[in-house]
Amino acid sequence: MPERNAMHILSYILKIDQSIRNGDYPNAKKLNQEYGWNFSRSTFGRYIEMMRSDYGAPIDFDYKKNGYYYTDTTFYLHHVMLKEGELLTLSTILPLLEQYKNTPMEKSFRDLMQKLVQMLPDSITVDSALINNEVHFISEPVTTLAEGVFESVLKATKLHQTLKIEYKTAKDSDYNERLFNPYHMVCHKGSWYLLGYSFHSNAIRLYAMPRIRKCIVTKDKFSIPKDFKLEDHIDIQMGAWGNSGEQFKVEIEFAKNLKTYVMERRWHKDQIIRENPDGTVYLSFETNQLGPATSWIMSFTGGAKVLNPPELKEQVRIAAQKILNSC
């Protein structure tokens, strides 16, 4: 039986529409023979009902010719495949995709957009002013990866095969050959990271993919330990830096002038936020990412006061002192 995901269903409906417009009076048996499908009559009937209910197709059945036809011969399914609001959404997405230019995701995004464009009839034009001028996205700076690294890492992660890589840490001056079992890929603020087991450290480590020069997928297979939990190593809301795995309850007090800015946002999925009687704002959440939390707090340039934990207080103090020393 053919796959039933949304893209395949749409392709089947378009072929049914084309066959009806060609005057072929299609039914399940005819199209199964023509396209090699294996639809039952009931499945084919559901697609016909979908065309009627979702797209307003004027379909009826001719018992003499044993097939379906349009009672309005001018009807053309493409005219209703994308509604105005959906076109607006599509045009809004385009500038967002531009943020992935020159990244490993660019080709996949462009291929997807090309498929969507091919579904549009010639009579539909999207205003270029909307695409180019009215909507803009400000993204994080994107790091670059060596050629072939992303593809090899993705393959090894999916197939659970060991990688042989040349890697350079932030402190090293040269690359070193290492073996690595990739468990999970993470994109954090414009940069790709690889979480998994490092043979070099004999422990789970987070590697920055831009620091990988050569990457070979070996034939050695591995299994992810049953006790491995992604949330023990990263915090999707806060960051993906190396950590001890310890969870900290972060408590912050924001200045009065930041009240509206802070309270209108969701900073963490498990956050507790409230306005204090004096107009300041209290925010708390749990995380294992004190490093990214420090950078985030520093971005408020003195408008965020750390109440807890003491470890975070100390990291912020040291970071602030380094800034003072450099002035």
Notable traits:
327 residues; alpha+beta; five-stranded antiparallel β-sheet; four-stranded antiparallel β-sheet; 11 strands
Task: Indicate the topology.
Layout: H1 6-21, H2 28-35, H3 41-55, E1 59-62, E2 67-70, H4 84-98, H5 106-119, H6 128-134, H7 149-159, E3 161-167, E4 176-188, E5 191-198, E6 203-208, E7 212-221, E8 248-254, H8 259-263, E9 272-275, E10 281-287, H9 290-298, E11 304-308, H10 310-326
Antiparallel strand pairs: 1-2, 3-4, 3-7, 4-5, 5-6, 8-10, 8-11, 9-10
Characterization of the model:
- The structure is a single chain.
- The protein is of the alpha+beta class and 327 residues long.
- The protein has ten helices and eleven strands.
- A five-stranded antiparallel beta sheet has the order 6-5-4-3-7, covered by helices on one side. Strands 9-10-8-11 form a four-stranded antiparallel beta sheet.
- About 4% of the residues have low confidence.
Helix count equals 10
Can you tell me the overall shape? extended
> Could you give a short account of the major beta sheet?
5 strands, antiparallel
Rg over CA atoms, rounded to whole Å, is: 27 Å
Roughly what is the average pLDDT, rounded to an integer? 82
Elements, N to C (H/E): HHHEEHHHHEEEEEEHEEHEH
Strand order of the largest sheet: 6-5-4-3-7
Strand content: 15-25%
What is the number of strand segments? 11
Helix/strand/pairing class, anyone? Answer: alpha+beta
| Poorly predicted regions | 121-133
Terminal CA distance: 69 Å
Relative helix content:
25-40%
